[in-house]
Amino acid sequence: MPRNVNYSELTMTAPERPLRADARRNRESVLDAAGELFAQRGDAVQMEEIAERAGLGVGTLYRHFADKQALLAAIIGRRFEAMTALARAADEASDPWAAFETLLYGYLESAQADAAFRFALLGPEEPSWNDIAAEKTDFSAITERIVRRAIDAGHLREDFRADDFVLITRGAMANMTDARNWRRHVTLLLEGIRGPER
Amino acid sequence: MPRNVNYSELTMTAPERPLRADARRNRESVLDAAGELFAQRGDAVQMEEIAERAGLGVGTLYRHFADKQALLAAIIGRRFEAMTALARAADEASDPWAAFETLLYGYLESAQADAAFRFALLGPEEPSWNDIAAEKTDFSAITERIVRRAIDAGHLREDFRADDFVLITRGAMANMTDARNWRRHVTLLLEGIRGPER
DNA sequence: TCAGAACCGGAATTCAGCTTCAGGTTAGAG
DNA sequence: CTCTAACCTGAAGCTGAATTCCGGTTCTGA
After folding, report:
1. Does residue B2 approach strand D to less than 7 Å at its CB?
2. What's the number of domains chain A is made of?
């Protein structure tokens, strides 16, 4: 007889008994509220605030998620899934460079809109986010393929590595204080900053 | 009759009465201890830990610095001064590109060695760090001159701006998880990542 | 050498947030 | 309709870390 079961598992193993209707509804509210607030102010939001926005008591948050980390992980997990979907879509493009740009800018636009996402990507690895590691692997595989295509088509320098994609995105995210800074950063990266006299 | 005077003013207006010998010595110990620890783990160190490393009680820290922020500000301020000195030195180089590279890599190597410095540069503007703003102005002026020289000599693209220097450094600092990542990042930036088929 | 201002130590206090828990409520099976 | 497991609430408890406070200690000028 578990008292405070954690249904936040991202792996979709259905719980023995489905949630009661009100519980399912509330869980959704929590996820929505947390999603918005985390996206807006990252880690800094308080549990109480999330509960209020969801129209629930704090206790209810804890019925659905073991702790703040678990809630954050659930939110982050969603974003990662979306990102993998984005990568998959980008890979559809027949033009290799279009695929690369779609992936890069799509990724960064998502990051711009979501402080929690940036937080997860820029900060140190959270050991509690194991579920996310698997998602990352999927994403990386697709990225790898897109990068390779761009190289083979001569759009990226020969020695470009998928890891470099991470470098670029981290760099850009660090410049997201202002809406246009990160675009400038990416532009400089893509075009290079050396002059004619190099 | 002030009780707990804040001598952390970075502006060197000497206090009415010079500090007692032991006090001056202790102040130095605090600065040293805090400098090392902040450099190592940034914001995350605790006052108690700093006190211990300095061989003093916490109360003593608070005799010299109003609060943790003030102590951090004092440390950061020192780094900024060093950075301005570095810029001045770089500007001495007769070769414009050498000057630019010296500045860029010197700046980044310092950042690599100091988490507190990165923290101050990457995080949002702290309102309590007013003293540092002045130092920043000096630094910016020199950077501006170095950038201009590099452009005029044809080593940097015409539309390069001093602000871009900030973009680059922020980007690189975000990639300082691993010692060589940021160098790769800078290299990509300088050389560009587009292939022959651009 | 001595008084007392300046200084120091570190236990006690404060505080902000997360988390728990002892009841009250409600969905929904029978 | 009834009963009860599942659910919800939010005040109270807990925790970790900053900050205070005051009795004791140490400089230093006379």
Report:
1. no
2. 1
**Which residues in chain A show pLDDT less than 70?**
1-16
Has residue B146 been placed in a domain?
yes
Residue B120, pLDDT score: 94
Flag if B184 and A164 touch (Cβ within 8 Å): yes
Is residue A177 domain-resident?
Answer: yes
Residue B97 has pLDDT above 50, yes or no: yes
Question: What does the pLDDT read at residue A2?
Answer: 37
Which CATH number belongs to the domain containing residue A164 in this structure? Answer: 1.10.357
**Chain A residues contacting B, CB < 8 Å?**
122, 124, 150-151, 153-158, 160, 164, 167-168, 170-175, 177, 181, 184-185, 188-198
Answer yes or no: is A50 CB < 7 A from strand D.
no
pLDDT of residue A16: 66
- Mean of the pLDDT values across residues B58-86? 97
The residue range of the domain holding A139 is 76-191
Gap between the Cα atoms of B99 and B115, Å rounded:
25
Q: pLDDT band for position B81 (50/70/90)?
A: very high
Q: What is the pLDDT of residues B107-144, one digit of tens each?
A: 999 999 999 999 999 988 887 888 888 899 999 999 99
A49: nt with nearest C1' to CA: C17
Cβ of B190 and A192 within 8 Å?
Answer: yes
Protein residue closest via CA to C1' of C28: A20
Say if B167 falls within a structural domain.
yes
C28 C1' to A77 CA distance, Å: 32
Residue A10, in any domain of the structure: no
